[in-house]
Fold these 3 entries.
Entry 1:
Amino acid sequence: MTSTPDVSPTPRALLTRFLNGSGVELGPGHHPMPILFPGVSVRYVDRWQPEENVALFTNVEAGATFTRPDIVANLDVDGLASLADASQDFVIASHLLEHLADPLTQIAEIHRVLKPGAVFLVFLPDRRYTFDRKRSPTPLAHLIADHRDRVTVVSDEHIEDYLRKTDVWDPTWTPEQQREEFDLHRQRSIHVHCWSEDEVLPVLEYTVLEMGMRWDLLDAMFVADEPEGFEFGFVLRRSSATAEPAVLAGKLRLSWQVVAARSRQFAEAERERAEAIRQLARLRALPGFPVVRSAWRMQRRLRQTLAKR
């Protein structure tokens, strides 16, 4: 009899149950996705070697270890050119897409390298709960324009918006200092784009309706699923179904709404449970609670005795 492995029960961790076979994680940095389930082999794709990452990201916690990539690539420029079509069982992108100049092109690249039936595991920060909270969501039209123009370099406008609305901007910077800050943050890869969990769904629908991608939603987690949550995630499968794009997009939207409703119901139940615990704690703190509790117990025993007669 085999023992059950000690795995994290978090919604984030449970989404990894859809990973099988061999695949890649894009941009793991110093937080590669923990693989909790067997039968999974991961290679890592990143722009920088660990030594370069340490020099660039001086604000990470002391002792952090950056993952050494198996494939070195600037995703904005190279995409996944080193990977063949339909060659991967899965692709992981955890807090990656928001850093790219052209997310739609990267999603297309991911769709290209996935085998039919393979999965795309995505996590994104929800702008409402991070340092992006003062920023506006990236409009779909903006993403479409970046994809049309094949943008490969993050613009000064994006960087200035990020610096100003995350309270990094210093009005005393000289033009030379401003240029240095722009170059540094362009290298470090800022949050070029930002969304809330509801604002990403139209982007996914667009990839199906207008870009020829074929996605099924297998599962998702939302901000409310985690205490003090700040991110959301979802698992897409490259569908082999022959349905029309409108049908696939409609199914994707309905699946998203169903999973989101489940999340809200769970969150509401947890809030009610927490409130009940708080109320009970306040009741137990009342001076007369021990006497009342004894009376309740005596009344219950009396009822049980009478019921037996």
Entry 2:
Amino acid sequence: MRKSRILTFLFGLWPGAGQMYLGYMKRGISLMLAFCFVFAVSGVLGLGIFAFILPVIWFYAFFDTLNLRSMSYEFLPHDDFLFHLDSLNVRKVTEFFQRRHLLGGILLIALGVYILLYNIVLPYLAAYFSINLYPFFSFFSDLPALILAVVIILLGLRLIRESIPHKAIEDDYEDDYQEYQEYHDEDSTHPSES
């Protein structure tokens, strides 16, 4: 049964909703999550540089909805996620956090303290004690962007470190070790000659 053109158009105005209305749940969820993630990163974390991606996602989702509605049944694509996370091994990530309960606990406590300070403690202190807490609010509002920037830099450094050919380094160690062995072999023969 064909879906209504008007409802397809109206649902198509929100990225992912049009696909979901047409029965493409995985595709719709992918687009909706991508749109909301970019919106959160650009708005909530104050990284407006990523906001230019929002219209791209919106237009793609809108015209994808209209194209899916206009296709005949034999040419309709299979419903699938737009972004495959096959390279991200979920089992390895789960095992990582199972082995490192301390890290997970520290991250959760830090997040809870951040939410508590930013949303409850600092506004309460500012309201009832007439204290100028603008520097604290400013710091706490910039804290997520600071953390994200540090994480991005650390990931970049790790990628650079992993791209260095380790074989060349290992060969240098082997050459140094052989020179060391030859030197000590020569030293061990000299005392016996005298």
Entry 3:
Amino acid sequence: MDSGVILNSSLSGGLDLQATLESGQTYLWDRDDGEDYRGSGLSGGGAWYSSVIEGRVVRLRQVEDQLEWRSTSDVDGVIRRILGLDDDLDQIMKMGIEDSLVESAYSTYKGMRIVRDPFFPCVVSFICSSQMKVERIFGMQQRLRRKYGEKVRFEGKDYYEYPKVEVLAGLDESDLREMGFGYRAPYVIETAKMLKEDPDGVDYFMEDYEQNREKLTELRGVGQKVADCICLFSLGHLEAVPLDTWIRSTIKTHYPNCDHKSYQDMSQAVRNEFGPYAGYVQTYIFHYLRHEAGRTSNIVAVGD
């Protein structure tokens, strides 16, 4: 067993672990207390979170001014990459749009970061996100891990890695429908088959943002919105702005000059308005309004 700490003071802009892991970006972490997406404020909590990354159990919690981690081996570098801890949040905040909504979101969830999830789990998670509340998406991915993922034992407890691409590619549609995947079942299986030769998305990391978004839409069940989610939350294109129903409504209300019928036109307008880190701005606004508006039960995921 290995363990370590990362001091908040060593990170530009700090870290809010709960906001990062419970803001609809990632569905790969389990809270020990089972209160995922139910915590008051969705910010600043000190619960333990667990995931299996690259075959290793990783456990995290934030206590006061530091991030504590425990794992089967040294995962300091993995954690920094997955949680975007090298992003210069102070500089990113300065380069974005300045208005009262964004400033309120930044101050309320200071330290929330954009994750860099493993490619294949991110793809499947957001294929499942259409017209779904974040709590349900999380539950679907959790069931998928526990039924088809490899078991890893750590400190007397069993943890489950996300299923490998070849496992999901070999399923029957009925297998996933029985788990509540509905019409998304064939999308997941067909996409797994398409990605069997490149489950880590190596080919995608070699492309620029626009090329990646276009290429991703060739996958079954991946439209422009889901492609933007994958670009932002896995491939690290921090300019990507996933435009779901909720965000489009927000844009229309708060930034009417960016309101366009065409997804492409609105995306470009929002990126011009929000700046080079538009994905960060959008994620802060989404998380802030999702909680502050008191409409948690009615808001669907970014991938819708």
